[in-house]
Amino acid sequence: MRKLRAWWVRLGGLFGKERREHELAQELESNLQFHIEDNLRAGMTPEEARRQALIRLGGVEQTKELYRDRSGLPWLETLAQDVRYGIRTLRKAPGFAIVAVVTLGLGIGANSAIFSTISGILLRKPAITDPDRVLMLLSVSRSRGMEDNPEQPASAPDFVSWREQSHAFTGLAAMDLWHDFTFTGQGTPEHVMGMRVSANYFQVLGVAAALGRTFLPGEDQAGREHEVVLSHSLWEGKFAADPAIVGRTLEIDGQPSTVIGVMPASFNLWVFGAQAWAPLAFTAKELSPEGRKARSFFVVGRLGEGVSPQQAQAEMNTISTRLEQAYATTDKGWTTKLLSLQEFEVRDARVRPALLVLMTAVGFVLLVACANIAGLLLARGSARQQEIAIRTTLGARRLRLVRQLLAENLLICAMGTGVGLLLSYAGIRALRVAFSFNEVVAGMRFGLDRDVLFFTVALAVVSLLLFGVVPALQLTKPKLHAALKESNRTGSASRGRMRMRQSLVVAEIAVSLVLLTGAGLMIRMFLQKVHGDHGFNARQLLTAEIALSNRRYADPVRDAAFFQQLVERARSLPGAHGAAASSSLPMGTGDESLPFAIAGRPALPESDRPRATHYSVTPDYFQVMEIPVLQGRPFFASDNATAPAVAVVNREFGRQYFPSGKVLGEHVSIGTDAAGQPKWRDIVGVVGDVDEWVGQAAPHAQIYDCYLQFPARSMAVAVRTGKQVSALAPALRQAVWDIDKDQPVSEIMTMEQVMYSHGGGAGTELIGALLGVFAGLALMLATVGIYGVVSYAVAQRSHEIGIRLALGAGKRDILGLVVGEGARLAGLGLFLGLLGAAALPRALASAFLGFTVAPVAVVIIALGLIGAVALGACYIPARRAARVDPIVALRYE
Amino acid sequence: MGKKTDVWQGTLALMVLKTLEMMGPQHGYGIARRIEQTSGHLLAVNYGTLYPALLKLEQEGYISSEWGFSENKRKAKYYKLTRAGQKQVEREAREWEQATAILARFLGKATSS
Q: Cα–Cα distance between A814 and A816 in angstroms, integer?
């Protein structure tokens, strides 16, 4: 305790030094006087008294020094001294200081931002109990046409079979995901995204309600399912956090439902994006034998005690085989795959490859930054060689010198970290905004990850120590006379260091080339994919999603009538050039892949049938979307419910299934009617291929039904407009409400926005932009690096240059000498970089499906850019070298 | 022991405290003289260690200091024992007595046997 008090007082002793010194001096003086008096009284002469007293007092300076040490905290004071000295030296070399701090800040900031974002997205654990024990059970098909998307949900009968037969799970719950609840009766009708779930869903996840309760067993039976659980944000947003919400009755999907609970704010599984939960009661149709092939329910389960995921997977494989044999018509070719909830989240987000690319890129930038700093420090070390030698000669202890260098480096580190912190906060903010197109990511919370920050700061500190202090340690070895004599001429130690700097610069250039090429490729790919031809005219197209609520429009005839009305109204809106509707938009979401059969070919069981992407469209669709009709005819208004069923296929369909070329007049069937007979359609037309997502490599087989004959419950309306596309949005919304005031309209966007958010366009653009930024950063850093090395080399050789000039070399020759050296470095770097860049197209192709940009042009541009920049960086020191006055150079040591 | 030896480390603090307890407030020189007297002039106080020691005691809160005037109207810094210092003196004195008693048994036993 006392010690603590002493320390505290000593800390305070850092201030008020002068006063204390003065007091001590006074005290010692009075001591002396007392002694003299005593001596006088003892009979000594005044001089003798004084002499004896002085001798007895001892060394005053030593006393003062000991006192001083005791009164403050000496090590702290020395540290402060070192820091002050460090600040002074840094101020004398502002160029070095600024470059080092900025470089470090950029490296740390960019890295922390990216890695924090990535760990936030990729590595988050869902906020449920023991998330590692919760698995998603997906059905996987081996049939043709499903290779792009093999993992599917399960059917109701399959789910029931799984539940009955499996022992590996304590509970399995089925989910009807992305169910649009329509909340009416309260102001404007509103779509709320939610899910219908088995009664044990919340138990499987291990979460309890914050208010009220979740579902009880048995509430997922028909008749008892008019209940709803709300999410915390929905409760706060739409119901103003009403404390009496539990027990209230709301009108949902046209039926009264009781609110039985509210989930806590922490419960937010963003992959499901649910704001409300209702019990899932399977209909008789869903549970019927035919219902076994309607795979629309996702299944989640919690592993039992001591059961490993591998054991559960093995058990599910056995069960699937059993089901395949028992129900060959529906389950043949289907097996089960178990994914952890996290894997499912990330896989669905389609963000992973992009993030991995980003991580690599930013890692490179960090490397380049470190290399730069290393180079800077090495140069600085060389420059201070003489200073350190002199100080050692004057008696400075090695430890003290090292401590001072350390302080200086730590100063840079501290400032760099500060800059880096600011940059990373800004960077994370920007990334969050930029990624918000992906609704999945937008719902997540992530911030600066502490581990990431520690890692990058640690990395910076290590590189600082390695390149700042270790060379300095070398300097303080007792080779003093050599160092003193060396006087900035190239000695053996500096030659080694020079080599290092050169290799660092070569590495920087190589990395920059790789980065620049990668960025260029991605940007080019983006431009091609988004602005290129997708098979239809995506410009000036306003779209809206209309999902008819389940209760009101259970009758296909009413469905058809609604959309017919809507399309007519939309067509007559002021500024509209045409309108059409489709069950799903190209490049949007919600497209279905359905199995079909061709007349005259051997019948296959449904699970083995090929699949094509299916659209149900209004008659004007091809004309409005500007999809070319290649053979036959498009749909007409006369292709209605009373006319014979017709279909239109795309060119790829014809190419794959009718290689002879005769397509028109063939018959194709999709699905069966009530009596179990296949519903045949007559192929009357062939249209051009349409892309389904950005970056699609090869066309898919596509088949179109006429909406009037085969209506769909939810359609997307597309309106071709003039200049002001979005201006039509309110009018469109009003047109919907004129027909049915309780019909919510979601996602009114231009076609380009649809492509961005759903087609994957935004992701590619973002990655391209970020890569461009990183490449630019790396380039900038590499430029600084080259400049540093070359100008330092020039400074080293100014003596030699002076001699050359004196002997008659022209300015041109000197220029050539210096630039030549820089060019050699750059050339080596570019060569190495080419080796790395050559691997890029393949790597990017595996990360992004269908990557087919020819790399040659991009590589040439990148080469040219970096080469030019490198030469430019050499030029300035070269000019300075050429302008050197030979007399000065000869004298300069 | 005829030669004057330097004061053992650590014991100087105790001697200072004891001196102040016996003498009341005193300045640095006075404390030193008193210590030398008490030791029978067998100890020589080194001022280089005395003043830092006084400072340490003050930092630890066992003594407090104040500028005042001596009989000869000379300005000097007087040190005084605090209550904590009083307790410390008593405590340390006890400990020393115990230590010497134990040691005495060893040494006493050795000589007696």
A: 5
Query: A760, exposed or middle or buried, with CB in 10 Å at 0-12, 13-18, 19+?
Result: buried
A567-599 residues labelled b (16+ CB within 10 A) or e (exposed): bebbbebeebebbbbbbbbbbbebbebebbbbe
A87 or A556: which leads in pLDDT: A87
Q: What is the pLDDT of residue B19?
A: 92
Q: Are strands B5-6 and B43-44 parallel, antiparallel or unpaired?
A: parallel
CA distances for A547 relative to A91, A289, A564, A769, B81, angstroms: 67, 28, 14, 35, 90
Whether A62 and chain B come into contact, CB under 8 Å, resolves to yes
pTM confidence score: 0.58
DSSP annotation of A195: E
Q: Calculate the dihedral angle through the C-alpha atoms of B20, B26, B29, B32, rounding to the nearest 10 degrees.
A: -10
Q: How far apart are CA A606 and CA A145, in angstroms?
A: 13
Q: Which residues contact A811 (CB under 8 A, 6 or more apart)?
A: A882, A883
pLDDT of residue B7: 53
Q: Return the pLDDT at A492.
A: 47
Q: Does A226 contact B at CB distance below 8 Å?
A: no
A128 half-sphere exposure, CB direction, 13 A CA radius: 24
> Which strands sit side by side in the sheet containing B75-81, from one edge to the other?
B26-27, B75-81, B63-69
Contact B47 A71 (CB under 8 A): no
> What is the rounded distance in angstroms from the CA atom of residue A122 to the CA atom of residue A406?
38
Name which of B33, B61, B74 is nearest A30 (Cβ-Cβ).
B74
Taking the Cβ of residue A35 and every Cβ of chain B, the question of whether any pair is shorter than 8 Å is answered with yes
CA distance B97 to chain A (A): 23
**Token match 């002085």: residue?**
A54
Chain A partners within 8 Å of B29 (Cβ): 30-31, 34-35
Beta strands in A263-360 (DSSP E): 276-279, 298-303, 334-340
Whether the complex's predicted ipTM surpasses the cut of 0.85: no
Please name which of A732, A716, A712 lies closest in space to residue A724, comparing C-alpha atoms: A732
pLDDT score of A11 more than 70 = yes
Quick check: B73 contacting A, CB < 8 Å? Answer: no
